[in-house]
Amino acid sequence: MIDDYNTIRVKPLGGALGAEISGIDLNEAIPDEQLTEVRQVFGQYAVIFFRNQNLTPENEIRFAKRWGEINTNRFFSSVEGYPQIALVVKEPDQKNNIGGSWHTDHSYDTAPALGSMLFAHEVPVSGGDTVFASMYRAYDTLSDGLKSTLGNLRARHSSVHVFGAARAEKGNDDTVGRIKNPEAATQEAIHPVVIIHPETGRKSLYVNPGFTLGFEGWSDEESKPLLEYLYAHAARPEFTCRFQWKEGSIAFWDNRATWHLAVNDYQGSRRMMHRITIEGTPLS
Questions:
Q1: Distance of alpha carbon 252 from alpha carbon 66, whole angstroms
Q2: What is the mean pLDDT of residues 110-138?
Q3: Does residue 274 carry a catalytic annotation?
Q4: Closest listed residue to residue 233, CA positions, set 100, 115, 143
Q5: Which of these is catalytic: 137, 260, 271, 274?
Q6: Which of 60, 235, 254, 284 is the least crowded, having the fewest Cβ atoms under 10 Å away?
Q7: 191, 155 in Cβ contact below 8 A?
Q8: Any catalytic annotation for residue 157?
Q9: CA-CA distance, 65 to 70, in Å (whole number)?
Q10: 105 an active-site residue?
């Protein structure tokens, strides 16, 4: 099914989230009316996709700035001459990929990122998909009793165990050399377990396996059983959509309403992406 707007066409990709937008050229300075419609789709579907958009770095940055201030990544290498663009690369001889398990970008920041844009510059012939999960749907399908319990909880998030020196010293996978500045991994934040999305007003589950340590006032051990239940629930297949990359594809996801993971099934091939992250606001 394709939904027609005034200036774009929209094809939903999954029952829970995700839509592909066509009829737009991001190499151009898109008019306000078209951006308004794209924003509507982003709010409704939480992750949006574009095809056949072979952008220059300048145009990648221009499109990103239409959404807000750019967050310069602390831990990835950047595209030469463009510090706003993080370089996400897996070479043919590397076994491990970055982002290969469920997570939400920047939940460790006091003001978590609004969203992340990923631009495909080189992709394998097959494999290397990205899977997204709806945290709106994860919350909506919980029991009333658990919703009540979670409504009173806040969770601790951290970057230290993922990007910090202790991980770098282990050297147990080949992503270690691709993660930069471990001394900068000092971010810790506390956020509500259930947030009210600042634009849509919808409630969203806001914990994730990548960066959440436990509940405020609870030990990690006490937190683990409930967190594991929430993680298994939120990753149910019916809450997800899967995006198959091609060169010139773009994905832009809402970090307040989604999880994502990069599937690591393309050993022997190169995958090279540009990522831009958009600054957000504190959550409530």
A1: 13
A2: 98
A3: no
A4: 143
A5: 260
A6: 284
A7: yes
A8: no
A9: 7
A10: yes
Question: 43-100 pLDDT, tens per residue?
Answer: 999 999 999 999 999 999 999 999 999 999 888 889 999 999 999 999 999 998 989 9
- What mean pLDDT value characterizes the chain? 93
CA-based nearest residue to 248, from 63, 51, 34: 51
Give the phi and the psi of residue 212 in degrees, each rounded to 5. Answer: -85, 130
Q: Catalytic pick from 105, 106, 109, 156?
A: 105
The three state secondary structure string of the chain is CCEECCCCEEEECCCCCCEEEECCCCCCCCCHHHHHHHHHHHHHHCEEEECCCCCCHHHHHHHHHCCCCEECCCCCCEECCEEEEEEEEECCCCCCCCCCCCECCCCCCCCCCCEEEEEEEECCCCCCCEEEEEHHHHHHCCCHHHHHHHCCCEEEEECHHHHCHHHHHHCCCCCHHHCCCHHHCCCEEEEECEEECCCCCCEEECCCCCCEEEECCCCHHHHHHHHHHHHHHHCCHHHEEEECCCCCCEEEEECCCEEEEECCCCCCCCEEEEEEEECCCCCC
- Cα–Cα dist 121/123, whole Å: 7
Residue 106 a catalytic site member:
no
pLDDT surpasses 70 at 185 = no
225-230 LR contacts (CB < 8 Å, sep 24+): 230/138, 230/205
The partner residues of 158 in beta bridges, in order of sequence, read 188
